[in-house]
Amino acid sequence: MTEQLPGLIVIIPLFAAIFASASGWLNRNYPYIISVLALTFTTYASVVMLIQTAGGGTLNYYMAGWLPPVGISYRIDALSALVIAAIQITALLNLPVSRAYTEQSFSKKEAPFYGLYLLFITGLTGITATEDAFNLYVLLEVSSLTGYALIGMGTNRSPLAALNYLIIGSVGASFYLLGIGYIYIKTGTLNMTEIHTMIYPLLSESPTIIMAFALCVAGILTKAAFLPMHGWLPSAYANAPNASTGIIAPLTTKVMIYVIVRLGISIFGTELAVESFNMSWFLVNFAAVSIIAAAFKALYHTKLKKILSYIIIMEVGYMVGGFFAGTPDAMTGAIIHIINDAAMTLCLFIAAGAITTKLYEDDIRNMNGIFTKMPFTAIGFVGGALAVIGIPPTCGFFSKWYLLKGAFAADQYLFAGALIFSSFINAVIFFRIFEKGFFTGEHHHEENGSGHGSVITEASLNVVIPLMASLGFIIALGFMTGKIVENYISIII
Amino acid sequence: MSLILSIKPLAAVLVSAFTVPAIISSGRNPNARESWTFAAAAVKFLLIASMVPVILSGKEIYFTIAEILPGIPFAFKIDSVGIFFAVVAGFLWIITSAYSIGYMRTLKEHSQTRYFAFFALSLSATIGAAFSANLFTLYIFYEILSLSTYPLVAHHQDEKSKVSSRKYLGFLLFGSIGLVLPAMIWIQMKTGTLDFTVQGIMTSGDFSKTEIVVLLLMLVFGFAKAGIMPLHSWLPAAMVAPTPVSALLHAVAVVKVGVFCVVRVVTGVFGVKLLAHLDAGVILAWIASFTIIVSSLIALSQDELKRRLAFSTIGQLSYIVLGIALLTPAGIKGGVLHIAMHAFGKITLFFCAGAIFVKTGKKYISQMKGIGRQMPVTLGAFFIGALSVIGLPPCGGFLSKWSLLEGTIQSGNTAFLVVLLVSSVLNAAYFFPIVYNAFFFSDKSDFKESIDEAPMFCVVPLVLTAAISVLLFFYPFIFNTLADMFVNSIYGG
To answer: Which residue of B139, B169, B185 is in closest CB contact with A431?
Structure first.
């Protein structure tokens, strides 16, 4: 059965999505149960594939047995396996969290919610698994459209934010499609490996191909919320329902970075993407500027989820800059940051969801003493924050290590400076919140237990357990950095 | 030099971190909670002490936890100077724990559970730093120490302590992320290693002289816990913490980790021979000299006792840096020895300051005239502590200062000799008036004529540390041997 896994990992959540939506008519608990079963399976499958691809193995799967270039093929290498595992684990961890919020936020809509949830994961997983550039576009749209819907289920402002996202997102997707069109005209194929062999050595100087690359990258960067195409992200994420921010925020932009890496490594080749092409120099310096700009934006805002959204934009700058800096260490940093940042963002958004739910608001100025009342949420939030700042031994430190080292090796000092400077700003942002959450509020002598008529209590176990698990990942990923790099990343680069 | 694999270093580091959950869970029963602290302190010290004979026999102990990054293990290696520092910190933690009980309970401080929990965590980080086998591991523990002491500095949770804790963390993180991290990555990139070796690792890379000097300064200033000007002002700010924190952490553990890092950087990373060859030590020695003189002058003008002690600490830390920077056998020996001698002297002074505050509520020197008649034991101990810090017999401080003076003569640069002598006069000028006025102030004072000391838990520890300061003059115990071993390992004598 293991040879079927690359196909099953996309097909199972796809069918589960249909069943989950339908089963809601029978029993309101069925959609959740089906989602848990489906994602447990895909998590298991992703771990199996992770083991099989360690050290450079690849898994190929041909849809309906049609071989490429005619049929659509799925190809799992170490890089895809890593990102697929991150997607499945994030989705699974966020399920219990979403359960805690569906009741209050949109009761009776569980069936469509979990249907969308699974379709969203289907799209993202497909993007990482496929070897077909056009199929990637289709799955991109699957994940985007479900993403708009998931965001639109949130607060009163969320439909507008989702519409905004839809417009910009569609523009981004169109650019990508246009780029793929150019490639198809020039090479006559949509299979990534085939495109690569067609480009080298014959077409690597072709202006059409270079244009295609620029269009694809521009389209995907729009979807990844790279500055200045980031405008849709903060309001979309800040207004999305707590039930789905835990998958949208950690995964959407990270999978887009994966696509950039895939474009660079597998389709166009690093020679064209980062070496002989001065677009990369421009992108790295622009990434540096965008890191600083996003960091200041995050500093300026007082709404917790807005702050975290700008931090996501900043992290996108890390990864884009790291990849286009082009040295092995910088690329390693960018790739490992895909999974590290997924873990960090998951952790922070789960904690933020718990805090804003209990507090009924999102403004950090009103979070006095919140952490003393929610100790586990506090631990999770602090862990995620330290990872974003880049304090060892959290995983954020190690990706920053690689990014910095790679930036030095590439002589990209502006980018290196931006990495360090953004760490300071992050420290200011988060320690300001810690100060509010831990040290401000009622000042009582010697802990005398409960009292003070406080109504805020720790979040439910549905939230706390996934939060602690994601914190565990933040630490564990840090300690496993060497193994991950050795077995999964250095092989691809 | 034979190496012995042992898990003891890891156990010694983790024992106090593992008691943190126990401390928190027994928060409602203070006696049980403090028993945990004592148990952890005792076990930790015994583990450290059990390694001393091995080190004295000329062997080194190592333990590798994980190879987090390729070629950069997260590892412990204990040599003479590492165990030297661990013995000092581990031993003084036991005494400080007793003092903490007296201080915190008498003042009925709030959040004592948090206080004891983070205290235990800080000690884990301190011992971890002492045992680190490479710059990378040292950096990790350095960062953990910064963060675990932050809640202790912010303990009072009022506006003043918030401002101070911001300053505290701001300086330390600026140094570690802004200066140490890039320098460390640069060195690793060029040499491929960060392991401390007897003659340094810089010879294996291709560095220009300017590069070496810049990297040296980045590391020395970056480890801002060493309090070298102008990155010193976090230390006076940190004095808002409860006095036991100032005593153990901001006179011994934290600041000595800072100078310990400088010792490691100069001897283990750059290598004494290389720096002597490039004449780079002199630059560092002048910076340290400047700090010594200026901080002593500032100390003269401070009326708040703890702030005066803080500026005195800044000066004394630079003694150690100066000793190392002289790059002569006696200078290095004196510097290392001063880690211990100053620790016992200065902790006594802080204990006395705390005891005075607990009993009388006085913080300012100008209010302490005539206090000697009420608290003769405390002020007697203060006198001994002052003697040791000034470097007069019959106190341990004399030995280290003697060796430092010898070092300046060996270096052939008499200017540094003058610096040390002038500074000693200044030390005497800011300490003796306190003691003189305490005992011989003849006008009417606010203090009782009869003896009325602070609680036993405060007085016994300060008498003990004062006694040890004297004892160290006659029997320098293992400290002298270990410092000699360290010097011999460098100069191969």
So the answer is: B169
